[in-house]
Amino acid sequence: MLAVFLFALYAQWRVSSAYGKNSQIQSRSGLTGREAAEAVMAQAGIHDVTIEEIDGHLTDHYDPREKVLCLSSENYRGTSLAAIGVAAHESGHAIQHQIGYQMLNLRMALVPSTQFVSKALPIIFIGSIFMLHGLSPLILDLVIICYAVMTVFQLVTLPVEFDASRRAKQQLVSLGILSPDEMPGVNETLDAAALTYLAAFMSSLLYLLYYLSRRR
Questions:
Q1: Second label for 84, Cα 20 to 30 Å away, from 2, 36, 100, 164?
Q2: What domain count does the chain have?
Q3: pTM above 0.85?
Q4: What mean pLDDT do residues 159-175 have?
């Protein structure tokens, strides 16, 4: 668990470092993240997804329920390699949604249960401390179920994120948004982001194994 904790810290540092570095490198095309996202989705025949500017740092995401692609201001308006890479990555999720990518559909189906167990876990732990003075077998079973759901969700998230990045990289070059010699900056940014998803999965898996061992 200590190793996973350190890996998670490393992943966060890699994201901040890679994004900070490549946000200073402007693309030769001069396109903004919003324009790059529009071009990628238009190439895929997607014209019903709204692109919105939101607050926050690296809060970018695609909402398949509302068909909204949300980009943080720095990526919505930015013309850097990092901004274009992140925007194209989120467009990759829109493409997945359009073609019915199975792993994305599975992740969408797991969202309600994952949100529920994420909120339930703190309540379970607090209740076990103040009311039961420890983790009883029943409480352990509930904790194991919660971590099992979270682990499956994080596992499914990995191919979804990797596939979105792959689609983004292909489209950026094929559409001429970025030149091949500009792609290392995009690759560095998106590959660093992928480490955070891997760290989240490893963390959930180890907690699941830990509580399973306690239950035995």
A1: 100
A2: 1
A3: yes
A4: 94
